[in-house]
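Help! Submission page says 'invalid entity' but I think these are all valid:
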Amino acid sequence: MAPKWQDLADRLAAEIRRGDFAPGQHLPHIRDLVAAGEGSKATVHTAYKALEAQGLVTSSRGHGTIVRPHGPVRPVRLVSKRVVLREFTRDDVDDVLAIIGDDKVTAWLSFDSRNRDQAIAMIEGALERAQQEPRTEYYLAVTKQGDNRVIGFARISFAGVKAGKLGYAIAAPEWGRGYATDAARALTTFAFTELGLHRISAAIGPENAASIAMVEKLGFTREGVLRDHVFTNGSWRDSILYSVLEHEWQA
Ligand SMILES: CC(C)(COP(=O)(O)OP(=O)(O)OC[C@H]1O[C@@H](n2cnc3c(N)ncnc32)[C@H](O)[C@@H]1OP(=O)(O)O)[C@@H](O)C(=O)NCCC(=O)NCCS
């Protein structure tokens, strides 16, 4: 039988993950849980320490333990014809790894293939930056309609004056079905209409025919070449810079 503190910690962890506590909210004071029959002071204290070790709460201070913010302050969900763009969750690691750990995909990106720890770090980083106020990055998971599994990502990060950089990738088995076009269109529309951006750019490897076809189809204009723009897969690579301006955008 698991010790009493462990049962309590497991139950509270499930409640925190489910979102029963708002980010920043305090957990109940230890003495209230003792009074409610959850166990001795030591039991509750040990359970809280276990939650802290899992990174679900910050340290016990004052009258209670504070729930660590565990997600974006205002989660974004964009629904388009074929895909849904949503915030990442920590459960997305395997799906993310299938994308950013795949050389077929990363051959076209600005970074080399990543391992599981790096996939976890990517999600943690995206969630952390999603909590910033003001938010300057929208790094979203792409899923199919009616299926919560992640098949790609799309990202806008602010850079410059009312400007954003667009990035995206789709898992290789799902290529050619219009998912990236849909995702990029939805995110660009969101950036112009909801975020008030004026300019969105995308830097694409000169040989990335699919990505170039996609932005041209969406109405982006070719601006020029960024020389030795990224160092990836062991060498420097140029990028072709594309952009679209607010008044040019036709969703
Ligand atoms: C680029 C990428 C995101 C496209 O994803 P996708 O879901 O297959 O894209 P779509 O199905 O929406 O297709 C986009 C367009 O590219 C075209 N296309 C696809 N593969 C192509 C290829 N090999 N050569 C030329 N055009 C191609 C499609 O025909 C489509 O145009 P169409 O609708 O006029 O036919 C995907 O290939 C990918 O993840 N690549 C690796 C990562 C990457 O390159 N990210 C972008 C970095 S700038």
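Support: the input was valid. A stray whitespace character was the problem, and the output above is from the cleaned input. The helical segments are 4-18, 30-35, 41-53, 93-100, 103-106, 116-130, 179-193, 209-217.
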